[in-house]
Amino acid sequence: MENKVIYVAGLGLIGGSLALGIKRDHPDYKILGYNRSDKSRNVALERGIVDEATADFKEFAPLSDVIILAVPIKQTIEFIKTLSEMDLKENIIITDAGSTKREIVEAGEKYLAGKSVRFVGSHPMAGSHKSGAIAADVNLFENAYYIFTPSSLTTAGTIDELKKILSGLHARYIEIDAAEHDRVTSQISHFPHVLAASLMEQAGDYATEHEMANHFAAGAFRDMTRIAESEPGMWTSILLTNKEAVADRIDDFKDRLDEVKKLILQGDGDAIWNYFNHAKETRKEMQIHKRGGVESAFDLFIDVPDEEDVILKILELLRGTSLVNIHVNEENREDINGILQISFKNVKDLEHARTVISEKTDYKVHI
Ligand code: NAD
């Protein structure tokens, strides 16, 4: 493949990680970057994430073979409008990284139609609570789903070409209609974030009158509310660009709560048992990670490359430390802070493991 010029607009966690992943398999490509603030722009240059960087979005667009918009959703749409008014290379590929797809694909179709542009929506489904170029990680998308949502401007071969360009991400590429993407993610991602935030609000209010709620909250509550710590700005944009689908999931859930409330008040033990059992069986059938029934209050998340013996290497470092569970989060990784999850019996072992792994390896470690 000839050397290409790839322009990544937005050198945050996602844009920076995409740039690193592209560079891994294509060191000869020229990677140009845009970032509004000096901070991530300078970090991206210092870390070699990009070859050149600008604070003027328009500057590099005419030089590029591929433009990846990795900025918030509203800004992605603004940049699509800006690009529609510019002279770009013939047959350029424009894509994005936004967490919702329908509005972005509609904007691409609306503003870029009639130009020599190939536009396809993208959602690399991995992330973390961190942001900025400082958090960019070449392994972020390893084994994660990378979703393409084609538009009427996605000509045959566009997605295959992008897959080759993105090969260094080591992601799992999949195509799906943009509206269907937004429906599916409303159920498995957007609505759970609303629920976690509401549960946190509810518990916080309750704890003002029942102080011990602050102290008794443990593993189950922690697991249910972890994602309430997500970045508010990103979640606001996600909900505002997927209103109907999320509202539909909220209504559906209200009905389910009413139903279980009725069973509880009726004292219908069999029905309640069935309710829990059905949920348990459904969860077992789903391709989500199973924790093996252990409480996981002392978890360490380690971003590791998908390489031979990597787990053995880590376990060797932890010789003598008692582990409760070990799990590889290799499926859909959006919001999961790392790929290898190790649970310990107590905080002392957890801290020991964090120190040893941080000192002896380059892997990023999160608690
Ligand atoms: P980030 O905060 O790390 O980076 C965002 C980037 O956008 C930064 O470079 C910032 O300077 C820039 N930016 C923000 N507002 C801007 C504006 N008004 N004009 C110009 N530039 C602006 O965030 P991120 O996690 O890298 O998210 C980028 C995109 O990726 C978003 O669309 C998000 O929905 C999507 N995404 C995020 C995740 C995740 O979990 N973090 C996962 C998948 C997709």
From TrEMBL:
Q: Which GO terms describe its biological process?
A: tyrosine biosynthetic process
Look up the EC number in the record and give it.
Answer: 1.3.1.12
From the UniProt record, give the pathway where this protein acts: Amino-acid biosynthesis; L-tyrosine biosynthesis; (4-hydroxyphenyl)pyruvate from prephenate (NAD(+) route): step 1/1
Ion transport as UniProt keyword:
no
Which keywords fit this entry according to its UniProt record? Amino-acid biosynthesis, Aromatic amino acid biosynthesis, NAD, Oxidoreductase, Tyrosine biosynthesis
What is a single molecular function from GO for this protein?
A: prephenate dehydrogenase (NADP+) activity
Every Prephenate/arogenate dehydrogenase domain range: 3-294
Q: What is this protein called?
A: Prephenate dehydrogenase
Q: What class of enzyme is it?
A: oxidoreductase
* Species this protein is from: Streptococcus lutetiensis 033
